[in-house]
Amino acid sequence: MKKALLLSILACGLCWGQVADDSQPASTNIVGQEYPRVHSDLRVTFRLSAPDAQKVQVRLGKVYDMEKGADGVWSVTLPPQVVGFHYYYLIVDGVQVDDPASETFYGVGRESSGIEIPEQGVDYYSVNDVPHGEVRSTRYFSKITGQWRRCFVYTPPGYDANRKARYPVLYLLPGYGEDDRGWFTQGRADLILDNLIAAKKAKPMLMVTDNQFSALKPGEQPLILRGRGPGSGGRGPGGGGPPPNFGNYGATFTEVMLTDLIPMIESTYRAIPRRDARAMAGLSMGGMQTFLTTLAHLDKFAYIGGFSPGLPQAKIEEIYKDPAAFNKQVKVLFIGTGTVERDANPNILRLHEALEKAGIKHVYFESPGTAHEWLTWRRDLNDFAPRLFR
Amino acid sequence: MKKALLLSILACGLCWGQVADDSQPASTNIVGQEYPRVHSDLRVTFRLSAPDAQKVQVRLGKVYDMEKGADGVWSVTLPPQVVGFHYYYLIVDGVQVDDPASETFYGVGRESSGIEIPEQGVDYYSVNDVPHGEVRSTRYFSKITGQWRRCFVYTPPGYDANRKARYPVLYLLPGYGEDDRGWFTQGRADLILDNLIAAKKAKPMLMVTDNQFSALKPGEQPLILRGRGPGSGGRGPGGGGPPPNFGNYGATFTEVMLTDLIPMIESTYRAIPRRDARAMAGLSMGGMQTFLTTLAHLDKFAYIGGFSPGLPQAKIEEIYKDPAAFNKQVKVLFIGTGTVERDANPNILRLHEALEKAGIKHVYFESPGTAHEWLTWRRDLNDFAPRLFR
């Protein structure tokens, strides 16, 4: 009994010691907000003042009940979390809402709270003491859609100063429910390239993000995946709901890219207008879009990346028709998956095995311990970008 | 009686006709979201599915109760709203949260829902068929804070093509609880300049936004205005709570601007490095910062703008010391206010009267029908920018 009490006191002391001593506000918090806090063992404590609510929960992957204190403040400490970036929500009497203490990130078809769980000893997506490029928000008129569109263009360090240099271009797409902002706000793609270029691991390049889901001709409706759209509470592809219907997905954006975006980039920026200076990659449905666009236009692209990609089977079959020709034409075919998502759905692993069997040169990349999530895709980009334009 | 009944039927018929026929999803909604909807008479209908909630309200200036339908969907139609951009929130069982259907905007010290109420016949902040500049996200190292900082740089149309042109610079600051993003996401400053430049009403210029609140030396704490910080539920300066304590506000950012930001801009961009090519303006506490910085360094700035500014009285007194010298040195001193905020607190009007009396040349601008809010500041910028660099 005495021993149990002592242990209990020690445990409690340790617990409070950790809260007081080694937990830190998440880097994704609004400035000045103390919660959520990440502990050194990667447990996370959430808080919300809600004296009048009947039930408050937090959804971070799973749903956890919060407990109400005498002061009307609800709180819970979650077990250690996987490193990287995760969307999360609070659930107040059944309504899934953002945590007022968090920055928001457009993902899952809505603005979502997000939390960065720090990865010890890893700084390839941090703001380091290296030269930094710019991320430019650029408007261009699309003849295909008849509307002004926005894209983001990363220009590498020294772009403005080195007036004679011309650069290859990586076109990079987000997944369903995300947009052209995601690769920078969630993906930290600019920092990944800054750090790779500073270490001379990647060639200086332009990187363009766009939003394939907003590429709509007059009368075309935006793609809403059944059970996965805004308000569905789903976590995007990989979440619940009936199987998706991709319909005509990809066709209009391919036209926009070839007719509007690439010509704009190559006339506005000092881009090298050659197929061996063009790469395209995307995550999830952005990977599907990448296959649809590049495999139909191999005369325009020499580098292809699918990061946890959706697989448009009919288009992918074309790869196998003439392996020797494909190997000669495509300088890098890269496919990646997180091991956690691989264990749930090994379709990328199966593609790797089929490509291997058919003698198609490619890179198969696995991100250890991660699911269908941004750390998988940061790692994909960090492995893919150094292989480009060699 | 008969007449009253007839009027009532007509009014109701009109009302329902409008709901069905002429309401539109707000332009600030997440793509694909039908609610909130703005009616042609500027009433606004909000909806939220919350079957388990006891009470749901919407706060848009005032707080309005929503009514629960049999399907668990709560809704309310608000009376006609003032045109322009407004922050708003849903209140679910007492917790003020963002509407999952809305884009979010960093303001009031948190990510907030926002709704754009369209202004008929006004397109100076719309995406028009004109040449568009770029908005560049740029990192720079601050010797004053010892940290990397971010700012945004608007480069006017043709900046990259006209390699020999050099440009004057407008430094533009946000208010309390906002940051360097606000002037673009809420203020549409890039579109205002695109349109003014296309109409040859404003000279092509660079425009730089930064975040004075994050300029902290090691050990300095961020400014949290009592009763107005994150979670206070206030609407920023002008809201409730005890009087603010501005303390040492402004001093560190002035150092950052003079030591780090301006030298970076003038060495990285093709800026004209002269006082008559430098303007500084800001809204609310950004206006206060502008007075603190420019009035202490009139050798560095020739154009000064305070948009609903906070007034640092001691610093402003210096203007009156030598009106003739001030009139000679300062090319434009601009102060603006919304008539609704003026009626609540006429401090800017009083400043105008005092300047007038002292013979200080200045522009006094009133935004009709608006409060301490973004439409006031869009109008300020639209009036101020054409006066610059003449």
What does this structure look like?
The structure is a homodimer of 390-residue chains. Chain A contains ten helices and 19 strands. In chain A, β10 (104-107) and β11 (110-117) form a beta hairpin. Chain A is of the alpha+beta class and 390 residues long. Chain A has helices spanning 2-21, 182-185, 189-198, 251-268, 285-296, 313-317, 323-329, 339-344, 347-358, 374-384; strands spanning 24-25, 37-38, 44-49, 56-60, 62-65, 67-68, 73-78, 84-92, 95-97, 104-107, 110-117, 134-142, 147-155, 169-173, 206-209, 278-283, 303-307, 332-338, 363-367. In chain A, the strands form three sheets. Chain A has an eight-stranded mixed sheet, with helices on both faces. In chain A, strands 4, 5, 8, 9, 10 and 11 form a six-stranded antiparallel sheet that branches. Helix content of chain A is 27%, strand content 26%. Chain A folds into two domains: 2-117, Immunoglobulins (Immunoglobulin-like), CATH 2.60.40.10; 134-387, Alpha/Beta hydrolase fold, catalytic domain (Rossmann fold, 3-Layer(aba) Sandwich). Chain A starts with a helix and ends in a 6-residue tail after the last helix. The interface between A and B is large, with 53 and 53 residues.
